[in-house]
Amino acid sequence: MEIAFFSDIHGNIDALRAAVNEAKEKGINKFIALGDYVGYYYKPNQVIECLLDINAVMIKGNHEELIFKALKDKKYLAYLNDKYGHGHEIALSQLSNEFINILKKLPKTRTLKLADNIEILICHGSPKSINEYLYPDVTSKKVNEVLGKYDYLACGHTHYQAIIKNKNRLLFNPGSVGQPRERGKKGACWCSFDTKTKKVKFYDTKYDRTNVIKSAKKFDEKIDYLYKVLER
To answer: Which of 71, 105, 67 is nearest to 84 (CA)?
Structure first.
């Protein structure tokens, strides 16, 4: 069975829809999402609707935790606006109480039993911390440490696609659907995992970035990184 892994969508519904469509074109109908559905960009409500429509298995990302904190602290919300742009504020204005509660109840990690007797641990940052970065140059010692008793681990957070093998053990990161940070990546980054062959395949799905770039310039012109990272 092939399974699509998405992470770090960040309110970019155009990117998510493109990734979902390509996955379905390839016959993939099982989806796993590794967190960060909100923040940066401006269509979080549609992102959650889309993930629910495809019955994606979901866990929490650090940007979900940021909006929960901002719900209780207006000064913190102002800080998020200055640092990341207005994506979090727009998420709080858009998301229904139902969607907020869905996000609140998401676990930080999950152990999934997949086809072909595959057991995989999924997390956003690392199994120990939602905010820990496991970049592509992570050491084999660290890989063994974070894998623990598991042979397979999928994580996000870095916005970089990565696959690290250690003998028969495997850690992989699908990259970011909504805001990839690798130079040369122009679309929605995600990956598939084949439970039979145990192969990871990376994708960079092209889509029209006009709307999200236009929105970033409208809402957060002074935080030019938000649109320049999509234009480079």
So the answer is: 67
